[in-house]
Amino acid sequence: MTKARIGVLVMSYGTPESLDQIEAYYTHIRRGNPPSAEQLEALKSRYEAIVGGFFPLRENTNKQLQGLQETLNREHPEIEFVCYHGLKHAKPFVEDGVAQMVEDGITEAVGVVLAPHFSTMSVGGYVKRAKEKAEELGLNIQFVMSYHLHPKLLQALSSRVESALRLFEGAKADEVRVIFTAHSLPEKILEMKDPYPDQLLATAAAIAESVGITNWQFGWQSAGQTATPWLGPDILDVLRTISIEEKVVKVLLCPIGFVSDHLEVLYDIDIECQSLAKELGIHLERTESLNTDPLYLETLSDVVFEKAQGEGKRSYGL
């Protein structure tokens, strides 16, 4: 009996693979408007500061895709899962991934974003693009919208908090301020009743309960430079406030909105936040990124399989 084949569109933001691709990447983010020389230099300098020519996000994303495919096929040998990249701002784009599936003869697919929390402006945007291309090409595709409270995800994040707290030698748990962070989005999502902030707070609260910490709060990071306001307070402002007003000297950052080492973690936290923390006399640590943690890959495998099984009850008798 021939195995059923299910395509998995693994969607993420994308990144340039080398310094000479940054201009095209930045232009795509800016909807076709090339950056000024100053803007381009500013972004290049950030990449140079963290990677020196090596771009960890693309490598991490490749490993996550490969790890997910291996996990799905190991855990569900009755089905053949084939994973495809679908990137927002770099090749292969979301539409390219959908087209490649169809070219490969895939007729049933599941889309999942490498971001646990849903927003109409992030995950919703990926889904819209993939759906439109799939409808154009006749591909039946379903989507995982969020997985922010999956037990294995919470377990992986909680263990990272516990490990990082041990870096503060001799400190009692409540002496360390734990700050959960995620990528800021424009404030207008609040008017839209977008679930993004609530889902992030739910993840943070679940981790805090699991680890047994009460001294924690939430901060936003990596806001875009636009005329419209973004969600705050920004993590840099949070650090200044708790240092000056509360005399906090030990801080653990836990960027739960990111699943991989990339610019927002390696530059915005490890360089910008760390630099400010030194100025303020704060001992700052951060939790390790999920990257290819088996628990994260199992989380993705679980939610993809569950979605495939829902459709498969009709198509495959699962």
UniProtKB/TrEMBL annotation:
Signal peptide residues on this chain, from the entry's feature table: none
Localization per record: Cytoplasm
Xref: Gene3D superfamilies: 3.40.50.1400
Keyword Cytoplasm attached: yes
Residues involved in Fe-coproporphyrin III binding: 13, 30, 46-47, 126
PANTHER family, per the entry: FERROCHELATASE, FERROCHELATASE, MITOCHONDRIAL
Family: Belongs to the ferrochelatase family.
The name this protein goes by in its record: Coproporphyrin III ferrochelatase
Phylogenetic placement of the source organism: Bacteria, Bacillati, Bacillota, Bacilli, Bacillales
